[in-house]
Amino acid sequence: MKKPILFALAILCQAHLSFAQKIFAFTDFDLNPGTGNSYMTKFTACNGKVYFNNTLPWGNNTIKITDGTKAGTYDLKDNNGNYVPHARTHAAVGTKLFICASNALWVTDGTQAGTSRLKAFNTFLGSMKGYNSKLYFAADDGTNGTEIWISDGTVAGTQMLKDILSGADHSYPDNFELLNGKLYFSAKSDTGTVAVWETDGSNAGTQIIKDITDNSNKLTTSNFSVLNNLLIFWAFNYQNRTQQLWVCDGTAAGTKSIKNKWQLNLTPSPWGENTAVYNGRLYFSGNDSTSGIELWATDGTTAGTQLIKDIYPGANSSIPLYLCAAGGKLYFSADNGVDGSELWATDGTTTGTYMVQNINNIYGSVPRYFTNFHNRLFFTAQSFDGRNLYTTDGTASGTKIIAPKTCTEKNPSSYVNELFASDSALYFQSSYFPNISGEDLWSIKDSIDVTSAPSILTNKETSLYPNPAHHNFTIKTTTVFTTGNVTLTDVTGRVVKTEKLYNNEQTISLQGIAPGIYMAHVWLDDKRSTQKLIVD
To answer: Which of 56, 156, 289, 492 is the most buried (most CB within 10 A)?
Structure first.
């Protein structure tokens, strides 16, 4: 029996999670009104708003925009009144969002008048990057193969930047990354092998840095990252199942391999980003054929590329995933061979690498979707009753489930996923029990001081009677609300009853509640009150 987790659920499901007199205010957007489901993917922030793909069960697939409020959430339509289809990829460039959807490039400023389709293509490779107020991307126009393109947000300004491999051959530009005032990417050379390229935005300034092929013609590159004025990336050889770690300083001489002949590992990971910059080093999952897939770090040199810790000793693999820096630590999931996949943290040293908490001591909690929100890590994990939203400060006691006031004691959530942090809110998809609105979009707003006037219900707005009570008591409120909830806790803070509120005057049964002193926590939308209730 997982007593610590069930205790945490009992306490935290009262309402909002509290940290030093702060609460997290939850919002249910109910995009598919009622109990119907709605599914969200591909979140992107641009110019103070958040864009995302929204899918309804019957196949109505649209892009929605939100300013963080229900009233300010709407479908994106173009200047002809047509829905913009689901995005494959997108990139924010200044105040504009560029969208790759249905093999066409779109641009929007968030308004219908400012949304238009710029150009149709045969295929998109998927890579998009903003640089010097323009979008750079890889696409095939049906004539020149897949090459590097540029757009300023107008039809006339959407053009191929360079035909690297002439005719219909494909150079496949990919892995766009900014370094020292230029844009770097991988693409084939004019001989068809793999090379690192750079561009200053002009045709003449788009040139090869170095061909990195090792005569196998089987290399591919991935995971371009910037560290200490260096570009760090991986070159994979699928013929002999090895990989090399490379650096590039923008010169041919400075583009070189610093670690060779590793076994093929999970970089890039099929389950998410698997590299992170932390305290002057790049951390990643590496496999040197001795320690299995473990946590490594590099400073861009051969000597500075080191194993941090062999978490699952020997040739076994702990498979660190979802690396994310937050609050002065680097977090990741890993399996030490005993506890299953759980939450880990490191300060960059072997002794400072530790399991934060064994969240699910039966089969592992498999933490996912690591996200830094306001310098604190948020993630999802499989607890005893479902995949829930967690937050941590790097300690076991500071690792907790958080859930809205409408959750029940034993199962606050069926599944939380796709976390996305904007400046003021953390967005995610979830279905909370009791089932309020099915699978839907939720957000956590900025922390709010619980003593601030807007969040407190006065006794005139909400009252309890009779008090003392015997078989039941009644909650009466003058406040108009959409979602209401009352939770009774005893003097130890244990939840003894939770019930949803539907009316401005509702009677609550006390059957099974022992005589004593209790606290009645009433939540009406984002307002609350706490009053003493005596049961005799």
So the answer is: 56
> Domain locations in the chain?
462-535
Determine if the peptide bond prior to 412 is cis (ω within 30°). no
Of 174, 101, 109, 169, nearest to 136 by C-alpha is: 174
Return d(Cα 128, Cα 509) in angstroms, integer: 58
Q: Which of 37-46, 108-117, 482-491 is least confident?
A: 482-491
Helix (H) / strand (E) element for 389: namely strand 387-392
Q: CATH topology for 462-535?
A: Immunoglobulin-like (2.60.40)
* Residue 327 burial (C-beta neighbours within 10 Å; 0-12, 13-18, 19+): middle
Buried b (16+ CB within 10 A) or exposed e, 294-321: bbbbbbbeeeebeebbbbbeeebbbbbb
Q: Report the Cα 355 to chain-centroid distance in Å.
A: 21
- pLDDT above 50: residue 202: yes
Report the distance separating Cα 389 and Cα 400, nearest Å.
8
Cβ(280)–Cβ(320) under 8 Å?
A: no
Which residues, in sequence order, are CB contacts of 80 under 8 Å at separation 6+? Answer: none
